Structures are given as C-alpha cells and as structure tokens.
Amino acid sequence: MRYVAIIFLSVVGLVLLTGTILNYLFLPYECILDKKEECLKKISETDNTRMIGRICHKYSEEDCIKLLSDLHSASRDSDIHLISDDYCLNRRGSFCAFSAISYSAMGNTEAARRFSASGCEQSEGVSCAILAGIQLDEENTEEALTTSLKGCLLGSAAACAISGTILFEKGNEEQGAQFIKRCCELGGDECCE
After folding, report:
1. What's the pTM value of the predicted model, to 2 decimals?
2. CA 59 to the chain's CA centroid
3. What pLDDT sits at residue 56?
C-alpha cells in the first residue's frame, strides 16, 4: 500500500513538473527572463490570445491595456473580450470598453451594451461613448444625450462629439458647438475641423 502511495505521489509530482516546464516552453524567451519591454513587444505580435492573457496577469493593467490596444490596432477585436471580460467583471472599468468594442465587432449588441453600461457605471468615459452610440442606434436620443454627457465629463472625446451632435440636431447650436470644441480639446481630431 505504501508503494502505491509513493508511486502515486511521484506521478503527480512528475505531472506538475511537466506542466511547469511546458508552461515556460510556450512563453517567449524574453518573458521567461522577465525582460518586460521585449516580452510585451513579442507578445503583441503573437496570435495566441491565451498567451496574451497570461502576460496581462503577469504585468500591470496598463501593460495589458496596451496589449489590448495593439490587438485592436491589428483588427483582432474578436479576440479582445477573451482577456478583457474578467477584468471588467472584477470592477476595472477601463477594460469594459475593450469588451464592448469586441462584442460590437462580432455583432453581439446585447453583450456590447452590457459591458459598456458596466464601464460607464464605473465612470469610464469611453464606455459611456460606446453605450451612447448603441442608444443612438436604437433611437433613444434622450438616453444617448444623458450617457454621452456623462462620458464627456469623464474626458471622452467621442462622448463629447456625440453630445455636440445631438445638441446640434435638437437646434441648440451654441451648446453643441461647446461640446464639439471640448471634443477637439480632448484629442478628437475629427472635431477640430
């Protein structure tokens, strides 16, 4: 009986050791050596979303946001939610916009609404802009104005643009122009023309 227990523990130990070794084998060399900048560059070039998620957990949230931005720039929006959903659900609002963008790209408006609403509730301006866009698509202009005003106050250029556009359409050109100007000030180049 004692030999069976020893053999069992040996097998379990071998499996755990093999898992640890394989875990390292699938990471780029730069990540194993903890060369952060080189690791992040290498990871941003990979197609392995699971590996990107592992690196997100290894480094800071800011680094993870940069990786998600790289995925977005590479038109890989359908992969983003695989990483950002957990962060958003754990009350990290800056990740909610990434999930909303990902679901929008996949045509899942209900999930996009849910994640953008969560981000907006957590005072994340881009999420408010995304939610306002969804509300506009559903012809809920008053809700969209309220949501976009909140997003603009939180510093989202896109939310300011939505607020300004809605106000212009309602005939309130002076106030609409102020929001368009604010959009430009926040870096929304399309509002500066």
Report:
1. 0.78
2. 16
3. 82
